[in-house]
Amino acid sequence: MYVLCGSFIDAKRMFHKLDLCYPAPWNWVIRGCTIIGRLDLALLFYFKMINFGTSPDKYTFPYVVKACGGLNAINLGKWIHTTIRDIGLETDMFVGSSLIKLYSDNNCRYDAQSVFDKMSQKDCVLWNVMLNGYVKNGEVSYAIELFRKMINTENKPNSVTFACVLSLCASDVMIGFGTQNHALVIKYGLEMDSPVANTLLAMYAKCRHVSDSRKLFDSVPKSDSVTWNGMISGFVQNGLMLDAQNLFRDMICSGVKPDSITFSSFLPSISESENLDHCKEIHCYIIRNSVKMDVYLKSALIDIYLKCRDVKMVSKIFKQRTTIVDIVIYTAMISGYVLNGMNWDAVEIFRWLMENKMKPNSVTLASILPATACLAALKLGKELHSYILKNGYEKKCYVGCALMDMYAKCGRLDLCHQIFEGVSDKDTVCWNSMITSFSQNGKPEEAIDLFRKMGLERAKYDYVSLSAALSACANLPALQSGKEIHGFMIRNLLSSDLFAESALIDLYAKCGNLELSLHVFTRMKTRNEVSWNSIISAYGNHGRLKESFDMYYKMLELGLQPDHVTFLSLISACGHAGKVDEGAHYFHSMTEQYGITARMEHYACMVDLYGRAGHLKEAFEIVKGMPFEPDAGIWGTLLGACRVHGNVDLAELASERLFELDPQNSGYYVLLSNLQADAGRWENVLRVRSLMKERKVNKVPGYSWIEVNNQTHLFFAADGSHLQSDKIYDLLKYLLLEMQREGYVPLLHGRVQAPGWHGSCRI
């Protein structure tokens, strides 16, 4: 009593008044210390008991073993096990049960199984302890086998047994086995037992059988919040946000008071719609009704406010003190900062928790890796990868996907692919990540090959897979492969996704078939901003500026708001058509009328717009007026415009910056050298050539390709490797002669020879 009340002085006085030659006083103290969480004291009293010469009995060891488990002292537990074996208490029901739990909790399956097999008498509790150990350690096949053995014995499974087995069915999505167990639950008359009913409900929801989950919910008593929480969570997990919100209202109307778990389950349904006002209403309800602000509720609130872009409120909630500082909250903060583009803030949070000896889990690491990807911080990414390997998290698929994305965005596609190959159990997300990485990093052929391999491996395609593969076909371009994917979408009823259909519009436009692009667009049942952007861009890239503008104004008439991609397509279209004033108008409309901040790609389009029209002064003014440092793409666009219009001085300025930003890109050296040659500045041509040799920059030969009968044919300059090259060159000569007869005069611009040189001055 004194120990349980925390009065150790009184407990000590009473303890020393007792006869310590018997184990009972020692057992009481050890038991009390274990119950109040003073596991170190419990073990200390055990060793004092041994030193005093008192022999422990079967009532001593369950709590001593429990203390070892609580302190993760598995080796000490094994040492005490030898004492138990020597005394002959290993097969005692209570002692054996505590040993099995110790070994199961510490992933020592063989030790647990060994003790279990030695037990001559096994009651339901003992079976449950062993079963729970298998489930906790993910030993699915052993758990199922043990459960089947149990139901064939005289021991009847109870509610604890079924709750354990059904949780296994939920986590491993075994709906068939789960349904069989539901029948057994009814057979044993446990269907109205609250823990069993709630686990059944969760099992059906996690296996995406929401209708069955709802039927069960309507048939069981709902006296407390647990059942309501399970059903709300099931709706949210399956994306049925409106159903979750309606059920939450029904819960309040029925008089059941929501708790912290209710709100933790329910809040994601609000963040999905990103409704800030609704979010604040729920937050006010939590405060008014004094709902306990535990770790999970705090984390859920941080998550929704970050998704609603209210960073100030997030900071206030984060600074509120809770009884327990948990990694979950910091993970939510990191994830939210990354979502809002605050990548350095995410990194700072991660550094703080590491400095304060808080151990990040696999979810934390998967959340911080996108920040390093966005910052292109390869060194930091590699450090995180090292930490992941040390802690054995690399086998988790979502961690592998985050690592792949980081390496791909940092330009290390080789390491990205290496990690992909190392993931043993690849899910759809993992395949999608690798296909997208190939597609976005100039490897469209590899992306298409991997897409085909994904099908051969019987991985399930989703809309992300299809969109990524179609994007790769558009970038190649590979019209036939794109048509095959389109056919697959139609056959498998996957052609109604907005993003996949938008990717189809882009594919057909880039492959030169504007009619098919328009056909896909007109057949769409619903259209969003992405769909309209795709068709606006399609018309613009084909020089159909009027139709591009018409689509833009139709989009506005339907009440859809343009985004940064819309204006990027419009400005680009104006640039191709030489409409400088219109392009400038849309740029200012984007920033001033719609409040959209111009990005790097918008400035690149504006430089291209002015550059194509020969307005190099205005183009340079755009570069100088940028609110952030121009990248190589900006300076490269300006250099290209200088090459077309012969502005050597501005070209030299642009090339200086390019040689700093992207010193291994041979194209920039070639452009500058050819421009210098056109101007007759031979010394500067030699200087550029010398610079290339000094930096070991090799010119990448230009090439083109064409797809004929689903086969891609590559052609390099002066290439004679093609099987039909003789016929091709004969036809080319014939075409040149025909062109000359029509009055065409070849432009020999930039091929003037310098004194003492042989051949062309071009690189």
Characterise the protein shown here.
The protein is mostly helical and 763 residues long. It has 42 helices and two strands. A two-stranded antiparallel ribbon has the order 1-2. β1 and β2 form a beta hairpin. α34 (564-577) runs parallel beside α36. The chain is elongated and about 120 Å long. The protein starts with 7 loop residues before the first helix and ends in a 22-residue tail after the last helix.
Keywords, separated by commas or semicolons:
763 residues, mainly alpha, 69% helix, elongated
Global geometry = elongated
Mean pLDDT: 84
Overall structural class, as computed from helix and strand content, comes to mainly alpha
The biggest beta sheet reads: 2 strands, antiparallel
- What's the total count of β strands? 2
Q: What's the arrangement of strands in the largest beta sheet?
A: 1-2
Uncertain residue ranges: 749-763
Intertermini distance: 93 Å
In DSSP terms, counting alpha (H) and pi (I) runs of 4 or more, how many helices? 42
> Can you give the helix content as a percent range?
55-70%
Q: Round the Cα radius of gyration to an integer and report it.
A: 35 Å
Strand content: under 5%
